[in-house]
Amino acid sequence: MKQHIMKTLLVVLQICILYIFSYVGNVIQNFFHLVIPGSIIGLLLLFTCLCFKIIPVKWIESGAGFLLSLLMLFFIPTTVGVMNYSSLLSFQGALFILAVLVSTVISIAITGTAGQFFEKKAQNRKGDQECSKPHSPSA
């Protein structure tokens, strides 16, 4: 029981650390009147602190994991809010979804074709290098 309480307090403390970064980002955004949202600035600050090892990952790992496990709950209000815009669900909405799907398929096809093309070029270059190596005379 005591261990469970300590684990819970640790997660709460780590979420507080993440909140502090978000708060500092909002303060910076308001102070400098930046267009970038404060939460994004806070994330960039956190990322910088993690990269330079100012803050070890273990200080936020459990709290971030907990928040990630609840992430889908944060999207439910947005998904329900779409119901207020029936035009998105009408013919125009269907066309929009179709355009997104077609552009996604085209992007995947172009990326795959380009990847295969460059892989073949790399293999051809590797084969040319092996052919141009001098052969040792056999006895």
Describe this structure in words.
The chain has 139 residues and is mainly alpha-helical. It contains five helices and no strands. It has helices spanning 2-32, 38-51, 61-69, 71-82, 91-132. The relative contact order is 0.07. The mean pLDDT is 87.
Q: Rough shape?
A: extended
Give the total of beta strands. 0
- Write the H/E string, N to C: HHHHH
Head-to-tail CA distance between termini: 78 Å
Q: Which percent range describes the beta-strand content?
A: under 5%
**Class derived from helix and strand content:** mainly alpha
Task: Characterize the largest beta sheet: strand count, sense, and whether it forms a barrel.
Answer: none
Question: What value does the Rg take, in angstroms?
Answer: 26 Å
Low-confidence stretches: none
How many distinct helices?
5
How much helix is in the residues?
Answer: over 70%
Mean pLDDT: 87
List the helices and strands and how they pair.
Elements: H1 2-32, H2 38-51, H3 61-69, H4 71-82, H5 91-132
Short description:
The chain has 139 residues and is mostly helical. It has helices at 2-32, 38-51, 61-69, 71-82, 91-132. 78% of the residues lie in helices and 0% in strands.
Using brief descriptors, characterize the structure shown.
single chain; 139 residues; mainly alpha; 0% strand
